[in-house]
Amino acid sequence: xxxxxxxxxxxxxxxxxxxxxxxxxxxxxxxxxxxxxxxxxxxxxxxxxxxxxxxxxxxxxxxxxxxxxxxxxxxxxxxxxxxxxxxxxxxxxxxxxxxxxxxxxxxxxxxxxxxxxxxxxxxxxxxxxxxxxxxxxxxxxxxxxxxxxxxxxxxxxxxxxxxxxxxxxxxxxxxxxxxxxxxxxxxxxxxxxxxxxxxxxxxxxxxxxxxxxxxxxxxxxxxxxxxxxxxxxxxxxxxxxxxxxxxxxxxxxxxxxxxxxxxxxxxxxxxxxxxxxxxxxxxxxxxxxxxxxxxxxxxxxxxxxxxxxxxxxxxxxxxxxxxxxxxxxxxxxxxxxxxxxxxxxxxxxxxxxxxxxxxxxxxxxxxxxxxxxxxxxxxxxxxxxxxxxxxxxxxxxxxxxxxxxxxxxxxxxxxxxxxxxxxxxxxxx
Length: 429
Known about the structure:
The chain is α/β, with parallel strands linked by helices.
């Protein structure tokens, strides 16, 4: 059976390898790139380099290794010197003789001196290159290198590099300044555009805010409210004043002259809003209290052009009272009814306080008729929104209820103005 196990024979001057298989493609590629005549020497050189690296990879700064190498070289030099000098002496002595008076006697003396000088020089070199000797040149050189690599020592490579990096990366350093310049140049167009848009938005917000606290935004609707009130009440001698231009609470004042049993004028202020604020009773009552005090009125109407201007708790019609007097919050459709309602409430209060001949109790059912009719109108309008199939029927019912509201208000006004008792059957209905 043929032996296949690799065999490595160690010899004093090297090794001999038999049947060794190296399963690495990169080794084959390297040798394949060389001429065949150079491959044997290249392989031996590669093994030497690899062994050397393995031996000294972790001992780069090992001073003991340096010392051993120096000693080896010096010993080799010393050995070879000792071998050369005696050989030369023997050859010369054998041929010419070194005894006194012979030809080589001076040369022998010179060789002896040379040998001694070489020995002393080698010793001096050994001392200079001994890393364990603090006074040797090599030791001083290594000490200087260590000092240059000491991060704690001022002036070392690490110290100089650290200070240089700190100077470059400092807040006012060249790197920061360069980065700042580059970033500023890059974002300058964006910043200018943002500033322009910001100015536009601020200007728009300022205009909107100014319009919100003045009558400019609602001026058209206030004028529309004035037209509606003049059409309803102007022919009866009532005075309609548009007062909202002074930026004070209250937009329109309705002054109804004394009539019948009521011997004093009725002053009602109207607050007109064309917004989607969704105000409830709390906010409405606060605004109307200010408006009544500002306009010296005893009643008020808060009218919203849109249903979204009033909260769900009010809906299309909501009654209330503040310290100054009664009020109604409603939508534009019910504005005339709301003014007549507040006027009726004010007349009723005057009658209750000063006239005993009027059947005030008979007026209350008529007021309830108005409330009931308004609630039914609100319900019907909801039905119109949810279903259009019964529109004709609902419209007829709506017209009938509006007529009922107007008739009830007429009877209330007649009763309070002339002292006529409302029709009993209609009051019950």
